[in-house]
Design a protein that fits this description.
The chain has 202 residues and is of the alpha/beta class. It has helices at 4-18, 29-33, 36-44, 51-71, 120-132, 158-177, 195-199, and strands at 26-28, 77-86, 89-99, 104-111, 137-144, 149-154. It has one domain (28-199): Lambda Exonuclease, Chain A.
Length: 202
């Protein structure tokens, strides 16, 4: 018998196939750019994502993959690895799209609705790829599930790069010492799978 739980199981299986393998000598750009406490929990207390979260995440991935597939034949490179040595670890990430001839890096973000302004974490991520790939400029592309699209142009900001590196160092120290980073409340808390642990008084 086919049930919703059966379908959720399919999505859980897809998520497991894509699950990131963590190592202490690598901090991902997306970890340092996003909520540090969530990144800490994902490293020290891994748990499967909630079923609806799995579905939403994979829908977003599907949009990414189709656009990347289209643009590969137009001079774009996809999932380009960027890395930068920071003390005891490598800061690493994968830019969604990079055009080496144009010196342009693009980050694609699917969302329920278009933000009024780009999220700071997304700008930190794009800025890091712009720096690490020595790109001339970057673009942050929001794709809403309504079909609306919004594009933000970004030029390298060295202050933002410095901030990201400091956040990566802070996360690495938190993981190695098993000390939770401070809370970073925001709109992302509502759907965070770790919100109850985070809000607990301990």
């Amino acid at each position: 018998m086919l049930t919703a739980e059966t379908v959720y199981g399919w999505f859980r299986e897809l998520v497991e196939k894509r699950r990131r393998v963590y190592s202490l000598d690598r901090i991902h750009v997306s970890e340092a750019a996003g909520c540090l406490r969530r990144a800490y929990y994902e490293r020290t207390w891994p748990r499967p994502a909630l079923d609806p979260s799995n579905v939403v995440m994979l829908i977003g991935n599907g949009v990414h993959e189709k656009l990347q597939e289209l643009l590969t034949g137009k001079g774009w490179l996809v999932e380009v690895e960027a890395r930068y040595r920071v003390g005891e670890f490598w800061l690493v990430g994968h830019a969604d799209l990079y055009h080496p001839d144009e010196g342009v890096v693009v980050e694609l973000k699917t969302t329920n609705k278009l933000p009024v302004e780009p999220y700071r974490s997304h700008l930190l991520q794009l800025n890091a790829y712009t720096y690490m790939l020595r790109a001339k400029r970057g673009y942050l592309v929001y794709i809403a599930r309504s079909g609306e699209v919004k594009v933000y142009r970004h030029s390298l900001d060295k202050g933002m790069w410095s901030q990201l590196v400091k956040r990566a160092i802070k996360l690495h120290k938190a993981i190695t010492t098993r000390t939770k980073p401070p809370r970073e409340p925001g709109p992302w808390c509502t759907h965070c799978p770790y919100k109850w642990q985070c809000l607990a008084k301990r």
